[in-house]
Amino acid sequence: MSDHPALASEIPSNEHLSLRVMPLPADVNPSGDVFGGWIMAMVDVAGAIPAIRRASSRVVTVAVNSFVFKQPVSVGDVVSFYAEVSSVGRSSITVDVHVFAERNPADPIVVKVTEARLTYVAVDRDGNKRVVGDEGASAAVAGCAEPPSDKELVLRVVPFPADLNPAGDVFGGWIMSMVDIAGAVPAIRQARSKVATVAVDSFVFRQPVSVGDVVSFYAEIVHVGNTSVTVDVEVFARRNPENPVVVKVTEAKLTYVAIDELRAKHPIGAE
Known about the structure:
By secondary structure, the chain is mostly beta strands. The protein folds into 2 domains: 8-123, Thiol Ester Dehydrase, Chain A (Roll), CATH 3.10.129; 152-259, Hotdog Thioesterase (Thiol Ester Dehydrase, Chain A), CATH 3.10.129.10. 15% of the residues lie in helices and 41% in strands. It is built from 2 helices and 10 strands. The protein has helices spanning 36-55, 172-191; strands at 17-21, 58-69, 78-88, 92-103, 109-123, 152-157, 194-205, 214-224, 228-239, 245-259. The strands form 2 sheets. It has a 5-stranded antiparallel sheet, covered by helices on one side. Strands 6-8-9-10-7 form a 5-stranded antiparallel sheet, covered by helices on one side. A hairpin with a 5-residue loop joins strand 9 (228-239) and strand 10.
């Protein structure tokens, strides 16, 4: 399959951005592409996010109504999952998910890679079906921290039980690795090449992160040198679907160096 650039009109607004992730080498199949099961898992998570908000409770997946792979996904692609509720029943919520990949930093392109429709059922704490409430019941997010308007939303992920530390919170190393990836996204765009992390100039944990939080990473380039790019990253977590709240959990500053295919430093051209 060949790449077909996505038209600007095809890409949904960030209002519907459920997840934005970067697959790693552990996610590839024997052919060298990202494993289709990884994409399916991420689509399921992405679709559950608006379903949980609409239900104001846990949800379980009950059907994959359609699923189409349009393009393969590669390691290093920035993969965005846009999800929107398409219908609501008594206890069910159907969600459309559209997936786009940004790739090739030397000559950036965005392509549509997947589209799917999934149905979820709202459940209570005991796993029993429950009635979905009126629309707008969970729209307000009380006591929330304000995400930065001057930074780009570069990653949005959901941690899983495998990411926990012995104390039951999400492992700080998981947060640090995601911050490193988040900071690399604008650095790669600026360098139009691979980058390597050379310094963590500051890193502050403000709140613990829990399994099921929707964790958003906002990044902004603050300095560009001859071969280096310094990026500020702020991290926010949305939690507690029954009474939603957004809190700032981490902030950091990292420096990256542009490297060529031989892993040697190279100058960064003007934007």
